[in-house]
Design goal:
The protein has four domains: about 70 residues, no CATH class; about 110 residues, PAS domain (Beta-Lactamase, 2-Layer Sandwich), CATH 3.30.450.20; about 70 residues, Signal transduction histidine kinase, dimerisation/phosphotransfer (DHp) domain (Helix Hairpins, Orthogonal Bundle); about 150 residues, Histidine kinase-like ATPase, C-terminal domain (Heat Shock Protein 90). The protein is about 50% helix and about 20% strand.
């Protein structure tokens, strides 16, 4: 690779452009030799003196105003080296900074020359002058970087990281040739600089996985009860045709399996309806205090059956938000029902509603649902809102869950410009928090939800 270090002050490449006087001084011995030859010609060959003076003057003009080839070459080389020393320039920096993906510019030695704003945000402490390996400690990426330095051919590599959560990345490594790079360097594939652009593929991979899992899981969830129904129908048509006890037992199981399919289909249709309205913000106003009280009362029979106490902490004053009442009831119901089912070992579920003044966001409504059950391991938390994702598949099916509840919650909150936060540790229960933007008390509210 061409050396990117700046030339020294004494090197010929660093000399300023020559002036006519400088060129005359550099050509003084040539002009002196020409003068001696002219005097000799006048003395020996009777050449007119004025011709000798004219020839000498012409030679002086040529020496003063026509740069010598070696000087021109040195000047060009000096300009190229100065360009390499100063690169990247302001225009290039502005362009790279405008990119939303992390970008690094390094020389052939692997020394970082420039880092865009996004890369500085994601890779703390990186700065120009440091080796690239200080920031990107990915062996496959560094090996690809070395290959690009040697061959000059761009490369793309993919890798994934599992800490703190599973993530996927793609790096595009491309050579950069400066204007005036030698043809020999280009033929040998020796670039002046290397551009490394990193793309985060995590969200795309998760969406692909979710689509694949959705089709596979929906097929499985429907196939299992259908196979059960088919088997019992065949049994009732055959051996158990005249056995009343077997018939009643099988019909009860068939009813349960049919209910399972109905719940699954209802959740799939509900999810589809929510997705159709994803970009339409609700315009009505609802009172979250009333919704929480109503939902807690509606689920009290389930809590009693499971031996769990629902403790509500709801302000007397209305807590108003822009939203669709039925969808926010569905969010509250899903969260409390999940806490009852999966945190039943803790015997208590706390449901708290409050308003908080969030810095930079204004007044927000905070709904917190906490159980004191077994809790959820950290590696499961990022995937809880994926469709059909279950921490414990057997336990979920035993609780008559479809695996779509939290996915529905996430899509409803996305439509309402809210967010879901999950905090949990194994053995310490789980807390699900919903944040929605509150509105002023002067806004009208909807009618109370009938009990």
């Amino acid at each position: 690779m061409t050396d990117s270090t700046p030339p020294t002050e004494k090197s010929p490449e660093n000399r300023p452009a020559a002036t006519p006087l400088t060129r005359l001084r550099e050509a003084r011995w040539t002009l002196f030799a020409a003068l001696c030859a002219g005097i000799l010609a006048v003395a020996l060959y009777d050449v007119p003196f004025w011709e000798m003076i004219l020839a000498l003057a012409f030679l002086a003009v040529i020496s003063a105003f026509v740069p010598r080839r070696a000087s021109a070459r040195r000047l060009k080389l000096s300009e190229q080296r100065e360009m390499r020393r100063m690169w990247p320039g302001t225009g290039m920096k502005v362009t790279v900074d405008a990119l939303s993906t992390p970008c690094f510019v390094a020389d052939g030695r692997g020394i970082t020359r420039y880092v865009n704003t996004r890369a500085q945000e994601l890779y703390r402490g990186v700065k120009p002058g440091d080796p690239l390996s200080f920031s990107l400690r990915v062996p496959s990426l560094l090996e690809a970087f070395d290959r690009v330095c040697t061959s000059g051919a761009e490369e793309r590599i993919n890798w994934n990281e599992r800490v703190p959560t599973e993530s996927w990345y793609e790096a595009h490594i491309a050579p950069i040739y400066m204007p005036g790079s030698g043809q020999e360097d280009r033929k040998r594939g020796v670039p002046d600089f290397i551009l490394v652009v990193i793309h985060d593929l995590t969200e795309n991979r998760r969406l692909e996985r979710m689509r694949t899992d959705f089709v596979a899981n929906a097929s499985h969830e429907l196939r299992t009860p259908l196979a059960s129904l088919t088997g019992f129908i065949e049994t009732l048509q055959g051996p158990a045709r005249n056995d009343p006890d077997a018939r009643d037992r099988f019909l009860a199981i068939m009813l349960e399996q049919a209910g399972r399919m109905r719940r699954l289909i209802d959740d799939i249709l509900s999810l589809s309806r929510i997705e159709l309205k994803a970009n339409v913000r609700p315009a009505s106003v609802v009172d979250m205090s009333d919704i929480v009280r109503h939902t807690a009362d509606a689920l009290s029979p389930v809590a009693k059956e499971l031996g769990v106490e629902i403790r509500t902490h709801v302000p007397e004053a209305p807590v108003r938000v822009n939203g669709e009442r039925d969808e926010l009831i569905q969010v509250t119901e899903n969260l409390i029902e999940n806490a009852l089912k999966y945190g039943s070992s803790g015997k208590i579920v706390d449901v708290e509603l409050s308003e908080q003044d969030m810095a930079g966001e204004g007044l927000s409504c905070l709904l917190s649902v906490r159980d004191y059950g077994e809790g959820i391991a950290r590696e499961h938390l990022p995937r809880l809102t994926e469709r059909f994702y279950r921490v414990n598949a057997e336990s979920s099916r035993a609780m008559k869950g479809t695996g779509l509840g939290l996915a529905i919650v996430k899509h409803i909150l996305t439509r309402h410009r809210g967010r879901l936060e999950v905090e949990s540790e194994p053995g310490k229960g789980a807390t699900f928090k919903v944040r929605l933007r509150s509105i002023g008390a002067e806004e009208p509210t909807e009618e109370k939800i009938p009990a």
